[in-house]
């Protein structure tokens, strides 16, 4: 029976190989084997994790947990290898290559429509965006530029805070005298 199954598989494999070509068949073999091995390996790792969590209960049955873990892990590895062989051969015979088709965008046939057609292109992009944050709003939002009078001087930038004296390390005592480390007091 095993010989007949082997002959049937080999004839089906050769028929598939001649129909698709040897280069594409080699690519299919690699792709199928890698995808099956990846899926089975992930499953095997989950099962090994479950085995590791539950193996300590074997000590209650007067069995050495290490020996039991080795025995069951080896059996699980053999099962994984057998299932990789079986599933990859099954998938290899079932897979059908298709002609390469270029994916099209979902929006390829959708007509373009402006949200606010009443605003012209020149009005939309005429005003530059200011780098000043909105007052009262969350950080990261910027206000549109406010018009300034021709005679008004530009607003100065924020004054920089300059600390006099040596730099205080994070784990040194705070110079304010609180007794806390600088990182817990004024270093926040």
What's the layout of helices and strands?
Layout: H1 2-20, H2 22-54, H3 65-94, H4 121-126
Helix pairs in contact: 1-2, 2-3
Report what the structure shows:
The protein has a domain at 7-94: Helical scaffold and wing domains of SecA (Orthogonal Bundle). 47% of the residues lie in helices and 0% in strands. It contains four helices and no strands. It has helices spanning 2-20, 22-54, 65-94, 121-126. Helix 1 packs across helix 2 (22-54). The protein is flat.
Q: Mean of the pLDDT scores?
A: 79
- Beta strand count: 0
Radius of gyration: 35 Å
The ordered string of helix (H) and strand (E) elements is HHHH
CATH superfamily of the domain at 7-94: Helical scaffold and wing domains of SecA
Q: Low-confidence parts lasting 5 or more residues at pLDDT below 50? A: none
Morphology = flat
User: Gap between N and C termini, in Å?
Assistant: 78 Å
Look at the structure and give the CATH class of the domain at 7-94: Mainly Alpha
Number of H/I helices: 4
Portion in helices: 40-55%
| CATH overall fold name of the domain at 7-94 | Helical scaffold and wing domains of SecA
CATH architecture of the domain at 7-94: Orthogonal Bundle
Q: Which structural category do the helix and sheet elements fall into?
A: mainly alpha
Beta-strand percentage? under 5%
Question: For the report, how would you describe the main beta sheet?
Answer: none
């Amino acid at each position: 029976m095993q010989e007949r199954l082997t002959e049937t598989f080999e004839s089906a494999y050769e028929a598939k190989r001649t129909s698709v070509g040897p280069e594409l068949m080699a690519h299919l073999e690699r792709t199928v084997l890698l995808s099956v091995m990846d899926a089975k390996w992930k499953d095997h790792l989950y099962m090994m994790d479950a085995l590791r969590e539950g193996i300590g209960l074997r000590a209650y049955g007067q069995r050495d947990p290490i020996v039991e873990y080795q025995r069951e892990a080896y059996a699980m590895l053999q099962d994984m290898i057998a299932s990789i062989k079986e599933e990859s051969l099954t998938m290899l015979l079932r897979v059908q290559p298709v002609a390469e088709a270029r994916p099209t965008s979902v929006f390829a046939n959708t007509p373009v429509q402006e949200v606010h057609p009443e605003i012209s292109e020149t009005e939309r992009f005429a005003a530059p965006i200011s780098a000043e944050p909105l007052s009262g709003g969350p950080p990261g939002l910027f206000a549109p530029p406010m018009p300034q009078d021709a005679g008004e001087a530009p607003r100065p930038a924020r004054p920089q805070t300059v600390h006099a004296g040596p730099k205080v390390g994070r784990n040194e005592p705070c110079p304010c005298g609180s007794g806390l480390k600088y990182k817990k007091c004024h270093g926040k």
